[in-house]
């Protein structure tokens, strides 16, 4: 894995542990030589992640619509800032530049981004693995709801099992790497595109 797309909050939230987690993830990815691809923000958990990875000598690729850059929301010191015209293009560029995707604590935007790339994988539009860093059980309620949806027959158990989930970054990276090594299975009878 050369680059990991990280979806997380652009705000700080109430729990300082979330900022500590973002900082730890940024530093550890840099230590492992894994570049960060993220939404390009300079504030909130996004900014903490980027600052930590940069301080540790890591590569940080930010992706942001021009209108948000013009409002001075972009991190000014990332390795590379890719600008685009829309949120749709932002997500497509992030997907193009990453080998896998992970969600850290975040809100509506984080959920929208991680669910989109997960559904793309399930549909065979890419074969890049998707995961949740469930530190301190942050995502446990959501994961419980997903199991309920699977139990109702509206989400395939195999799709849910394909999701990488771990309480710590080393475990999550191991799970993502294991999925990268798997031979991708075609979706709905179609041949899955190559990574």
Rg, rounded, reads: 16 Å
Total of DSSP H or I helical runs spanning 4+ residues = 8
Helix content: 40-55%
Q: How many β strands by DSSP?
A: 7
User: Structural class given helices, strands, pairing?
Assistant: alpha/beta
Strand content: 15-25%
**CATH uppermost class:** Alpha Beta
Taking pLDDT < 50 over at least 5 consecutive residues as the criterion, the unreliable ranges are 186-195
Give the strand line-up of the largest sheet: 4-3-2-1-5-6-7
CATH topology: Rossmann fold
The figure for the number of domains is: 1
Terminal Cα span: 12 Å
Which keywords apply here?
single chain; 195 residues; Rossmann fold; seven-stranded parallel β-sheet; 16% strand; Cytokinin riboside 5'-monophosphate phosphoribohydrolase
Tell me about this structure.
It is a single chain. 47% of the residues lie in helices and 16% in strands. With 195 residues, it is an alpha/beta fold. The chain has a single domain (3-179), classed as Rossmann fold (3-Layer(aba) Sandwich), CATH 3.40.50. Strand 1, helix 1 and strand 2 form a beta-alpha-beta unit. Helix 1 runs parallel beside helix 2 (44-55). The model is unreliable at 186-195 (pLDDT under 50).
In short, what is this structure?
Helix content is 47%, strand content 16%. The protein has helices at residues 16-31, 44-55, 66-70, 87-97, 108-123, 140-151, 157-162, 169-181; strands spanning 3-7, 35-38, 60-65, 80-84, 100-103, 130-133, 164-166. It is globular.
Chain-wise SSE layout:
Layout: E1 3-7, H1 16-31, E2 35-38, H2 44-55, E3 60-65, H3 66-70, E4 80-84, H4 87-97, E5 100-103, H5 108-123, E6 130-133, H6 140-151, H7 157-162, E7 164-166, H8 169-181
Parallel strand pairs: 1-2, 1-5, 2-3, 3-4, 5-6, 6-7
Helix pairs in contact: 1-2
GO molecular function, one term: cytokinin riboside 5'-monophosphate phosphoribohydrolase activity
EC number: 3.2.2.n1
Protein name: Cytokinin riboside 5'-monophosphate phosphoribohydrolase
């Amino acid at each position: 894995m050369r680059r990991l797309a990280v979806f997380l909050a652009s705000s700080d939230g109430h729990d300082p542990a979330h900022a500590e987690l973002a900082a730890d993830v940024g530093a550890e990815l840099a230590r492992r030589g894994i570049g960060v691809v993220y939404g390009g923000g300079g504030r909130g958990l996004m900014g903490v992640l980027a600052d930590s990875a940069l301080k540790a000598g890591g590569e940080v690729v930010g992706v942001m619509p021009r209108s948000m850059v013009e409002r001075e929301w972009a991190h000014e010191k990332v390795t590379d800032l890719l600008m685009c015209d829309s949120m749709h293009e932002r997500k497509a560029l992030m997907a193009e530049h990453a080998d896998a995707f992970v969600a850290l604590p975040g809100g509506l935007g984080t959920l929208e981004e991680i669910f989109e790339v997960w559904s793309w994988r399930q549909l065979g539009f890419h074969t890049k693995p998707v995961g949740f860093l469930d530190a301190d059980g942050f995502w446990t309620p959501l994961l419980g709801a997903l199991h309920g949806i699977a139990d109702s027959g509206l989400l395939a158990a195999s799709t849910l099992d394909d999701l990488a989930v771990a309480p710590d970054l080393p475990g999550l990276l191991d799970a993502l790497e294991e999925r990268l090594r798997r031979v991708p299975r075609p979706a709905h009878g179609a041949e899955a595109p190559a990574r």
